[in-house]
Amino acid sequence: MNKSLLISWIASLLATLGSLFFSEVLHFIPCTLCWYQRILMYPLTFLLGIAFYNNDRNVYKYVLPFSILGMIISAYHYSLQKIPFVQKFEMCTSGVPCSGEYINLLGFITIPFLAFIAFLIITVMMVLLRKKSIA
Questions:
Q1: What residues does each domain of the chain span?
Q2: C-beta of residue 95 within 8 angstroms of C-beta of residue 58
Q3: What is the mean pLDDT of the chain?
Q4: 0.90 cut: is pTM over it?
Q5: 6-39 pLDDT, tens per residue?
Q6: CB half-sphere exposure, 118, CA atoms < 13 A
Q7: Please, which residues have CB within 8 angstroms of residue 103's CB and are 6 or more apart in sequence?
């Protein structure tokens, strides 16, 4: 059993289920950047689940582009929420504003923050997996 694959799969699964819970149970309407993050996270749940099942140590080649881009979008989204200056560059012009916060636990934990942490965990696990594969 490969722990890097298991941890990254669990992170993607929890992020996917969490986003579905927020939208389908709590009825939070996703903004544009939330959709972009979902587009990057949902396939990871399947890719990493299959990779864990097959013990595919080369999956990092396919996962890292998704997770790194997801980290960038999540970081930008989080900065829209927490840094007033960045809000001048908000790209959400219709519907739910990307700078809005459905949740704000402890003054800093928002949905984009949670997505960033999930993408970060996946990225770190894939970098570790890559180092093990190369060695």
A1: 3-134
A2: no
A3: 92
A4: yes
A5: 999 999 999 999 999 999 999 999 998 999 999 9
A6: 29
A7: 109, 110, 111
